[in-house]
Specification:
The chain has 142 residues and is α/β, with parallel strands linked by helices. It has 5 helices and 5 strands. It has a single domain, classed as Rossmann fold (3-Layer(aba) Sandwich), CATH 3.40.50. Helices cover 40% and strands 18% of the residues.
Length: 142
């Protein structure tokens, strides 16, 4: 499998590091591009400002609780943008209740996942990333 582009919208550096370590452990070749808030995420996706040369991600991993613009707001803007709405994404939140609210509000995601408390959970998360990437983003919603 060739290297894929992953956009991780996450303000917790520890979660980013654990995902990167899990990617290495699984052997999944991904270039992980990280932005730490919703405003940066949209600038990256729209290739604005310092992100003018940014690669289009094959998958977005999105936290819901973000500074400046929430993950929910980012998703709403992505869904309204015809050039972005076909990019698959995973909602990745530390709050199970936030994930339940996202599902209830019908935010369409390929997966809704609670951030794990153990490293093996991050390895499992990376396997979900691999599944979505190998299916071309057409994997079942869950």
């Amino acid at each position: 499998m060739t290297s894929r582009e992953l956009l991780m919208v996450e303000d917790n550096r520890g979660d980013v590091v654990l995902v990167q370590e899990a990617l290495r452990k699984v052997g999944l070749l991904c270039r992980v591009n990280v932005v730490s808030d919703g405003v940066e995420a949209l600038a990256y996706l729209r290739r604005q400002g310092r992100y003018a040369g940014a690669a289009r991600p094959d998958l977005i991993v999105l936290d819901l609780k973000l500074p400046r613009k929430s993950g929910r707001e980012v998703l709403e803007e992505i869904q309204q943008d015809l050039s972005l709405c076909d990019i698959p994404f995973i909602i990745f939140s530390s709050s199970k209740s936030e994930l339940e609210l996202a599902r209830a509000s019908e935010l369409p995601a390929h997966r809704y996942m609670v951030k794990p408390s153990q490293f093996e959970g991050y390895v499992d998360f990376v396997r979900v990333i691999e599944e979505i990437l190998t299916s071309g983003g057409k994997g079942a919603l869950s």
